[in-house]
Design goal:
By secondary structure, this protein is mainly alpha-helical. It contains 15 helices and 4 strands.
């Protein structure tokens, strides 16, 4: 039995006998915060590793366009999503992460900013003057009273285009811009099938389809270069002397524990249960699907859930198979209120089961965008089970705040959960 588990068992046994071990058996809050930082450093480090693998696959696709190389690049993108999604448990509560997150994971996006789209997409939007700018096809863009020189597609240009005109849907960087360039639009609605961009969109010379293959390759290359550098920057912030760890330490021990719970509760409730899941279910709208071009949403949701569990339990399995683990929030809860600890454990288990069932259905029966379709009672039920699990565990996280005698926390909310009648 590890020292960590031994200490937890000792406390539980002592309570059963009516014995108090006091400070002797108490989990050190500073150690819990260290574990939290170690987990963040590891998960962002894994995100860098898998993004570099993606970068290599994209470089090969651009140099030697083929169906096989496009498939390999897509597979590398899917693999890169797994560690990154687990990092989202660190987002809320850590301003340094939340302020940065839009660079790498902004969604949904108006894909007409980037490349060609189907006629059904339309040519203009009252909210977005850059709605159909098509940077890949145009070396100069004029919209909303602004002219942009896009002659050379570089990382710097993409950063300039990110949220251009103050519109959040103008996404030119990050995983989802890359996803669109690898898969293209998913035009299947809530029917079967993902995006199906042909490999010849990157072909050389006369074999090029849809025009501007060299500029499309340049955009894809620049976006991947930015993704790697942005992830490297965040991984460095969680190094032992990094800014993220320093910000966490400056909050004090209780402030740091509150940060952990803010991240777990806000991701569980407002973000994942609400904006990413219940909203699309209410509207039966595949446009609200997180990984909408690749039909990978089931995995993104699944790994978000895994990230929540990893942070709560203080244990993360790296892509190389090694474990990063240590004293965690779960230990503090077990010492403060063993009954509540069992409650949280059971609810996390139920949510993991719901996410696993959704993932299994997506891999055997129908993808997530089909599950949320109108009239699909069985699919809707599977997705709703995940919403219910996430919502239920959030209530227990609220009780943890009280049990640990922390200052009140307001978790992120969502109209889809708090005021469904306002959702259109």
């Amino acid at each position: 039995m590890s020292g960590k588990n031994w200490a937890t068992a000792l406390v539980a046994g002592g309570m059963a006998l009516g014995v108090s071990f006091g400070a002797l058996a108490a989990t050190d809050k500073a150690a819990v915060l260290k574990t939290y930082g170690d987990l963040a450093e590891a998960v962002y480090g894994d995100s860098v590793i898998t993004a570099k693998t993606l970068q290599a696959a994209i470089a090969k696709l651009v140099a030697e366009p083929s169906a096989d190389n496009l498939a390999a690049a897509r597979a590398a993108w899917l693999a890169a999503r797994a560690p990154y999604q687990q990092s989202e448990a660190f987002r809320f509560g850590n301003a340094i992460v939340d302020d940065w997150e839009g660079k790498v994971n902004a969604w949904p996006l108006d894909e007409g900013l980037i490349d060609y789209v189907a006629d059904s997409y339309g040519t203009e939007s009252d909210e977005n003057p850059f709605y159909a700018a098509n940077v890949i096809a145009n070396a100069t863009i004029t919209a909303g009273g602004e002219t942009i020189d896009a002659t050379n597609i570089t990382p710097e240009l993409l950063e300039q285009l990110q949220e251009v005109g103050g519109v959040e849907a103008n996404v030119a960087t990050g995983y989802h811009a890359i996803e669109f360039l690898l898969w293209g639009q998913d035009l299947n609605g809530t029917g079967p099938g993902a995006g199906d961009r042909p490999w010849t969109d990157y072909a050389k010379g006369d074999a090029c389809t849809n025009g501007h293959c060299d500029r499309r390759a340049a955009f894809l290359t620049a976006a991947t270069t930015l993704l790697v550098s942005d992830l490297e920057w965040m991984a460095a912030q969680w190094a032992p002397d990094g800014a993220a760890r320093k910000e966490l330490a400056e909050k004090g021990e209780d402030g740091g524990i509150t940060t952990i719970l803010t991240g777990l509760g806000s991701l569980s409730y407002g973000e994942l249960a609400g904006e990413r899941t219940k909203l699309g279910l209410l509207l039966h709208d595949p446009e609200e699907e997180h990984d909408c071009f690749s039909d990978n949403t089931h995995n993104s949701h699944y790994y978000d859930v895994q990230g929540i569990v990893a942070v709560y339990d203080g244990a993360y399995k790296r892509v190389d198979g090694t474990m990063v683990e240590g004293p965690a929030l779960a230990d503090l809860v077990a010492e403060a209120d063993p009954k509540l600890a069992e409650e949280v454990k059971a609810k996390l288990k139920a949510t993991v089961a719901a996410a696993t069932a959704m993932k299994a259905r997506a891999e055997s029966t129908e993808h997530y965008d089909q599950m949320i379709g109108a009239g699909n009672e069985a699919g809707n039920k599977v997705v709703q089970a995940l919403v219910d699990g996430l919502t239920d565990q959030t209530k227990s996280f609220e009780r943890v705040i009280t049990a640990l005698k922390l200052a009140p926390v307001e978790f992120e909310g969502s109209d889809s959960l708090d005021n469904p009648s306002a959702v259109e």
